[in-house]
Write a structure and sequence with these properties.
The chain has no helices and 10 strands. With about 100 residues, the chain is mostly beta strands. It has one domain: Rieske [2Fe-2S] iron-sulphur domain (Rieske Iron-sulfur Protein, 3-layer Sandwich), CATH 2.102.10.10. A hairpin with a 2-residue loop joins β3 and β4. The structure holds FE2/S2 (inorganic) cluster. This is Rieske (2Fe-2S) protein.
């Protein structure tokens, strides 16, 4: 099954796009040739993330996450925690969340 997140053309070349996702939000960004999507939720207490200086940074207590690997760089999120990436597929110019395939 699939659910459209956004149009590929709307994803900026730098930084991220925040798209609605089943009543929540996801960050969508370009990482080289790949497009990545991750829940806009910190792995500490679920705070919202900003895209800053090439990282996703929590607005609440400052945890930073690497946009390539998703891994926590610093801050109070647990060591070894990682952004919640979505499984996605590009189809007909749109980025889709896919599951159950
Ligand atoms: S909720 Fe993100 S660092 Fe605390």
């Amino acid at each position: 099954m699939k659910h459209e997140i956004c149009k590929v053309a709307d994803i900026p070349q730098t930084g991220s796009l925040i798209a609605p996702f089943f009543g929540r939000e996801v960050h969508v960004w370009r990482s080289g040739e790949r497009i990545r999507a991750a829940a806009n939720a910190c792995l500490h207490f679920g705070g919202p993330l900003d895209c800053k200086d090439g990282a996703l940074v929590c607005q609440w207590h400052g945890a930073r996450f690497d946009m390539e690997s998703g891994e926590r760089i610093e801050g109070p999120a647990p060591k070894g925690s990682r952004l919640m990436f979505l499984s996605t597929r590009v189809e007909d110019g749109a980025l889709n969340y896919v599951w159950g395939e």
